[in-house]
């Protein structure tokens, strides 16, 4: 059954636009950059939650949350691998023992494994972010679909380096998408 409804997008537009800007510029601001990026993340979460609630599609928020969880898990596992690898090297006889080519290659191999695991988690996160943003028919802004697709492609290609540029473009498009949200939107979701 189709049901037409009007959504208030003013809050999502404001939260998402400002949040996406803070996430983009936060890492480049000395001292308080982490805090700015964190505030930006919270604001984007509020925007995505607002869109999800107003549209009645819980998948929008749930997929965004899965993307966030995948990124955090990837970072935690990566940092854990690095700390464990360096800690083990120090406990086995100090960093001087790394002069042995076999020990050094073992350390490099473990760190590379950590990077590959991080890349896999980041790619999974990109996929869920893409899925979250694919539901742009609720917002009337197709720019979300494009940003989501670029986040996913960028995550896949980040291992080659070019992905960083693609993700930067996706972040800029995300800002534009949030600020392009209409104040109200007529939408027709399908309900079973």
Automatic annotation (TrEMBL):
The keyword Hydrolase does not apply. Keywords: Membrane, Transmembrane, Transmembrane helix. The keyword Transmembrane applies. It holds the Pfam family DUF996. Coiled coil: none annotated. The chain crosses the membrane at residues 21-48, 68-92, 104-128, 148-170. This is DUF996 domain-containing protein.
